[in-house]
Design brief:
Order of helices and strands: HHHHHHHHHHHHHHHH
Largest sheet: none
Strand content: under 5%
Oligomer: single chain
Structural class: mainly alpha
Number of helices: 16
Distance between the termini: 71 Å
Mean pLDDT: 87
Length: 423
């Protein structure tokens, strides 16, 4: 599916990345990552007994589901003009490379950091078969609940594995979803997949298998990404100016729906053990925040919170290796949390540690390396273009030489004949 209009123009790709930043959506990323941190802080010995079933410390799934919907929205917001009319090979390669350079450097760093921790962990011996799956972000491509590769090493990277599944499909999803006559295609595909998966899980499957296939199997979570794509389609319509009038209502309703979904999650049937309960609230909240109005948007747009939002990806991936290291130290020393004072001291103290590490990783490692890697592809493409243009010039010269050669040969022959006949 090649475009006949803009897919061959590199400037269209560059223009796609110059859209106005939706600062409210940058700030909200910090809170989504923070809820995942709170979900894992109970790894510290003694924390679970005090946190209990508190919703605040059991809302990690909310943050992950929100990230999936937000990912589909942001990518469509930035790239809809690139893939609206078709998917060219050059733009597809550039898109996938840009996404890989976004997620892999931090993933690789945290993988290296958590590997020795996992090797010497006495509570969960490392299954070495999981190592290559984690290294190449394939742990959630595995079409079986056993072995549970996603439960090893840096566990939050399971969602990054899902994102790596989404990215190669994203240009096609945008192409179909943004076009007026094609938007039914991803809907039909998603519905067909859901029906097939439901029939498979309905008969003779254990609860652990159902949990894996609806919550961690990458194709199952692609539905949330698609929701974000279609929310972006609504936002990008010419009549989106009307959305500003109801942005506050959309934000409030979205937050209430997310809270309601989190409260109902434990009692819900297995088809809702993934992110289906959070999709309506996430969609409304993202749409409201993207409209850029209201007190909450003003709060999320503050420079400090914006900076934390930019570092949210690093926070998301680095917090568990640091928590696992602290857990090992506590177990070695025989230390355990017994009071609420110690509980909140651990929550605040460890957050300061992981947030500081996240900021350093983001600004000293993630962003600089990402820029270098992206320049490599640009340089390679420019070199290839120069070679093609040089080859084209040489080819034109050869064709010109071939056309001119017969006349040149005749002239040479006539000259040689003259030299022979003249005294």
């Amino acid at each position: 599916m090649r475009s006949t209009h803009n897919s061959e123009r590199p400037e269209v790709y560059r223009e796609a990345m110059r859209k106005v930043e939706l600062s409210g959506l940058t700030g909200i990323r910090f809170y989504a990552a923070f809820f995942v941190y709170l979900h894992h802080i109970v790894l510290i010995p003694g924390m679970t007994a005090l946190s209990g079933s508190s919703l605040l410390f059991n809302a990690g799934d909310v943050g992950v589901s929100f990230f999936f919907v937000l990912s589909g929205f942001i990518l469509t917001y930035n790239y809809a003009d690139v893939f609206r009319d078709g998917v060219s090979g050059a733009n597809y390669q550039r898109f996938v490379w840009d996404r890989l350079t976004k997620i892999y450097p931090v993933h690789f760093l945290t993988f290296v950091l958590v590997l020795p921790i996992a090797i010497f962990s006495p509570q969960l011996p490392l299954d070495w078969r999981a190592v290559p799956f984690h290294l190449f972000l394939l742990q959630c491509f595995w079409p079986s609940a056993t072995p549970a590769f996603s439960d090893y090493l840096n566990v939050p990277s399971w969602s990054i594995s899902c994102e790596w599944f989404f990215y190669p499909l994203a240009p096609l999803a945008m192409f179909f979803a943004v076009g007026n006559r094609r938007r039914w295609v991803p809907m039909v595909v998603a519905l067909g997949y859901a029906c097939g998966l439901g029939l498979f899980l309905w008969h003779g499957q254990s609860d652990s298998a159902r949990l894996y296939f609806v919550s961690r199997f990458a194709p199952s979570r692609f539905v949330e990404f698609l929701v974000g794509v279609f929310v972006a389609r609504i936002f990008l319509t010419p009549s989106r100016s009307n959305l500003g009038e109801v942005s506050g209502l959309a934000q409030a309703t979205g937050i209430l729906l997310i809270i309601a979904g989190a409260m109902y999650r434990q009692d819900s049937p297995w088809p809702f053990w993934g992110g289906l309960l959070y999709e309506p609230g996430s969609a409304l909240l993202i749409l409201g925040l993207a409209s850029g109005r209201g007190f909450f948007v003003a709060h999320l747009s503050r420079p400090g919170l914006n900076r934390l939002g930019i570092a949210s990806f690093s926070l998301y991936l680095i917090h568990l290796p640091l928590l696992r290291a602290m857990k090992g130290i506590c177990l070695h020393l025989g230390w355990e949390v017994h009071s609420w004072l110690a509980f909140w001291a651990v929550v605040i103290g460890m957050f300061m540690v992981v947030q500081t590490a996240a900021l350093l990783i983001c600004h000293e490692y993630e962003i600089p390396l990402q820029k270098r890697l992206r320049r490599l592809l640009v340089q390679d493409r420019r070199l290839a273009e120069r070679r093609r243009s040089h080859a084209g010039v040489m080819s034109d010269r050869r064709r010109t030489d071939r056309r001119a050669r017969p006349q040149v040969d005749v002239e040479r022959k006539l000259t040689s004949y003259a030299s022979l006949t003249l005294p």
